[in-house]
Amino acid sequence: MDKLNRRAWGLAMASVVLLAAASTARAEFPEKPVTLVVPFAAGGPSDKIARDLAEALRKRLNQTVIVENVGGAGGTLGAAKVATATADGYTLLVHHIGFATAPSLYRKLPYKGIDDFEYLGLINEAPSTLIGRTTLSAASFAELRKWIATDSTKVNLAHAGVGSASHLCGLMLQSALKAEMTTVPYKGTGPAMTDLIGGTVDLMCEQATNAVPQIEGGKVKAFAVTSKERMKLPALAAVPTLAESGLTDFSVSVWHGLYAPRNTPVPVLAKLNEALRGALKDPELIKRQEALGISVVTDSRLEPAAHKKFVEGEVARWATVIKAAGAYAD
């Protein structure tokens, strides 16, 4: 073998060794803790969901799964952190419906958009509730609707900040009622709920996850739920849907999905998707989710392609609502 051929053979063998090493590294994923970035403050609905998911994923991946809260700018800061992270599967994003509304809400995003991510599957769906201060004279949604119609601008509708689930649901509600209310933004669900309980504001459209304890405690009134069917939770079983209350086809669910940075290796994505599927069958996770009125996803949207198609549909749906309301954020 001449010198040139020996060199070529040596390079070829080196390439084989490197490819084998890379394949082995991917097969052994994860070799260190995985981080789930939640783009909202600790203690909120998304944070609770992520922590339940982290424990279920830990069992499937045989590795520590950490939850990191990166709040701010309606969830865009946390999303940007994941979009720009190393694409190795160790930094993932747990985001809700705001993932699909950000491209319409924000004129400038700190990342390119939904194409900056790999889709791992939808996690769950949760309806919201329309709740009000206990001192409101209305005892039903029909009475509430009449009260709003007298002068909607005098009705104070609270939400947890631009891009939050309560903000989006509130936009949809105003559009359906053809009523422009005075919206009152807060820096999170906690302070918004505190003021609703205290009677400072009139109404709020909030996830059942947070609303149920306040309803059960008699601290707020429940007027309707945003699901297609009535909820089975004892506190909400008698509460009608907005659709049956006269707002035909009104349905808003707050969903959560799992994402990785764009260009994460395919074998890693496959392992993460497999782990997610297993996690969503975990009896303890299902029990905790159902106790909060949340449905774990079991349909085709667990497939990455179907998950992305679903999000693209949500982007288009909410773009129409946001544009009509002129609800933009800088």
Summarize the structure in words:
This is Tripartite-type tricarboxylate transporter receptor subunit TctC. InterPro entries: BUG, Bug_dom1. Residues 1-27 form the signal peptide. The protein is an alpha/beta fold and 330 residues long. It has 2 domains: 30-126 and 253-325, D-Maltodextrin-Binding Protein, domain 2 (3-Layer(aba) Sandwich); 127-225, D-Maltodextrin-Binding Protein, domain 2 (3-Layer(aba) Sandwich), CATH 3.40.190.10. Helix content is 44%, strand content 19%. The protein contains 11 helices and 10 strands. It has helices at residues 3-27, 45-61, 76-83, 98-105, 141-150, 165-177, 189-198, 208-216, 266-279, 283-291, 304-325; strands at 34-38, 65-69, 91-95, 117-133, 156-159, 182-185, 203-207, 220-225, 253-261, 295-296. Strands 1, 2, 3, 4, 5, 6, 7, 8, 9 and 10 form a 10-stranded mixed β-sheet that branches. Helix 6 links the parallel strand 5 (156-159) and strand 6. The longest helix is centred in the N-terminal third of the chain and has 25 residues, at 3-27. The chain is globular and about 65 Å long. The model is unreliable at 14-25 (pLDDT under 50).
Topology:
Elements: H1 3-27, E1 34-38, H2 45-61, E2 65-69, H3 76-83, E3 91-95, H4 98-105, E4 117-133, H5 141-150, E5 156-159, H6 165-177, E6 182-185, H7 189-198, E7 203-207, H8 208-216, E8 220-225, E9 253-261, H9 266-279, H10 283-291, E10 295-296, H11 304-325
Parallel strand pairs: 1-2, 1-3, 5-6, 5-7
Antiparallel strand pairs: 3-9, 4-7, 4-8, 4-9, 4-10
Helix pairs in contact: 2-9, 2-10, 4-11, 6-11
